[in-house]
Structure formats: structure tokens, C-alpha cells
Design goal:
six-stranded antiparallel barrel, 32% strand, 403 residues, alpha+beta, Elongation Factor Tu (Ef-tu), domain 3, 8 helices, Threonyl-tRNA Synthetase, Chain A, domain 2, Diaminopimelate Epimerase, Chain A, domain 1, 3 domains, six-stranded mixed beta sheet
Amino acid sequence: MTEKLYHNMPTVETCISKVLACRKTESAYEALLDKTVIFPESGGQLSDRGFLNDAAVLHAREENGLVWHETTAPFEVGAEVAVRLDVEARRDHSAQHTGEHILSGTANTLFGAVNVGFHMAEDYVTIDLDTYLDEAQITELERAANRAVQENLPVTVRIVDEQALEHIPLRKQAKGLTGEIRIVEVGAADSCTCCGTHTAASGEVGFIKITAAAKYKGGTRLWFACGMRAAEASRREHELLDALARRFSTRPEDVFEAVKKQGDDNAALRAELKKRTETLFSMQAETLLKNAKTAGSVKLALYTGQGFSMQELRTLSEKLTLGGNTAAALLSVNGESILYLFARGANVRFSMKQACEAANALFGGKGGGRDDGAQGSAPLMGESAFLQAAAQLEDYLLRALKT
């Protein structure tokens, strides 16, 4: 067993330890020590970082009570090494974990919500509650949690056995615990079994900021930050709000209304643009139908132009094929590509998929579709080559539509 000095309060930052084993891994080494101040990843909490002598400890994990340290250098079995904790990383992890206790305990007290999931990453932390919380409840939760932080409640740890555990009321209790069981209490805010590291008092958490929330499996997933993470998140939000205020030439408190007004104005402009585009396409379709060549009982409406997107070509084709006896072959130079789309009216039998295959061959492109509609694209070519290929396509389609 590895002696776990990381559970000592106040935090033990260094120790001298003996190397019990060392082995090569795919990208580093793993050293087993008889004692350590470095917390191994478990219980949703990240691993500590630190040093063995001058070699960095990248990660630590526990296996059957043994703590293995992933290091950048090997060590001789039996050698004594100086183990040194990365204090800033520990302070961050402990603040996040203690903040999780406060949030979870407060959510349980206020709303009867049970924490069913906890995950800590380097740039975010989440908890999953089994109860859905609306925006007002989340605001109430954040305020109540920060009051617990301000009260600077003591964080205490006690060790009990499984018999004693049965008689202790806790907010959450891990299943199947035996031997020495750690109970962590944050004043009156929370109490549960826990293997992680924590601050000495709730005040060291500094500030709890709920950064996002989402409905998750019928409950609520909360993203949050504590301590310096919360301070950095608030700073970034302030910078963004300040930039938006300057962009809209308004005060920060008026940014929402300014953004809303711009959104409303843009919606009105889009509606007007759609209306005018519909008129333009109707006129374009009328002109194309008037000039369409016939192949038996079928009209071939051919368009060659620039600037139309595939969606715009599709809109135009819908207007062209309403009559039932029209096949539409629409080509548009768009950026560095040639877009083409083929559609047919209800009375046309020739396959538009075959028309697209012909265009693929003529323009050196790729595309496909169904008998009633197909589309594709090809690399941009010179204007003369484009017009020549379009003329060849028209000849092919006029012949094919007669059959």
C-alpha cells in the first residue's frame, strides 16, 4: 500500500519517498512509491501534477491501493526521491471539488436534487442533477452556494468504518465501501463520502460561477467554475460584453436591446429580400420558359449564368417545372466551382440522373441523384470552354428528351 499523504490537512507539499517499482510505458515511465503527496485521478477529480526529483509527474493513478506515478524519467528500485507537489494545480482542483460539494449539497437542500454525476476537466467542471432546474432556480442555487462560500465554513474530514457509516446521515454515500471510509463535511452545506482533496474552508473556493446549464436525461447538467477559473470566466465575459458595447455604441447594460434590435432589423431585411428574390425568380423562370427549346412535347429550360447557389438553382427549378412538361438544366458559376442542377416536371420521363452523368463527363465534375432530380459540381473552367460544354449538354438533352 502507498501511504497517502495527500489526504493530510493542511496540505503536505513535499516528502521523501522510496521507489518500490519502476516500469517503462509507451510514452514515459511509471514509478510506484511507498508514500506520496500526489493525488491520483479518481472520484471525478483530476490527478495532481508535480515532480520526483527533477522529473515531471504527468499523471498519477491508483491500483489496488498502490499509487503509480507517470514520470518523464526512470528511477532505480530502492532509491529515495524527493516528491514535490504542483501546488497551484492542487489548489485549483481542490477549489473545484469543494465547490462541487457546495453546489451539490445546496441543490439537494433547496430542491431535493440528487447529484448523479461529476466530471472535472482542465478547463471545465460538470455535475449532473436528477432534477430539472429552470433559469430562476439555477440563479437561486448559484447565490445560495456563494453565500456558503462567504460564510467560510470549515471543511472537515473524519474516518469511520462501515458499521459507523450506517448511522451517519449524509447527502451522498458511495456504495460498497469497506475499511477506512472518508467523510467530508463542508459546514452545514454538505456531507458525503469522498476520496478527493479539498480546501480547508469554503472561503478558499473564492467564487462559484455557473457558466452553462442544459436539460440532461430528464435532469440538469451544470457547467461551473470556482476560484481563479471563475475569475477568468468572469473576466472573459466582461471583455466580450465591453467589446459588444463598443461595437453597438451603447452601454454594457443596453447591449441586449441593441443586439435584439439588430436581429429584428435583419429579420425584416431577410423577409424583404426573400420577397424580392421570389419575384426575381418568377421573372427569370418566365423568360427561360419563353425562350425554351422543345423536344417533342417537352420544353428544355436551360440556364447558364453566375452567382447562384445550389439552393437558388433549386428554387428556380421548382418554378420552371410546375407546368409538368418542362425539364430544367441549370448551370451557375459560383466562386471556384460550376454548379449544375437538373429537374423535371411530372410528365417528363427522361432521367435527370442520366442528365447529371452527362454533365459530369462534359465538365469533369461529380454528382448524382434520382430520376426526378439530380445535382453536381465541377472545377471552374474558362468561359469559352464552359459555354462550349453547356452547348454540348443542351444538344444531348434535346436528343434524349425526344425519345
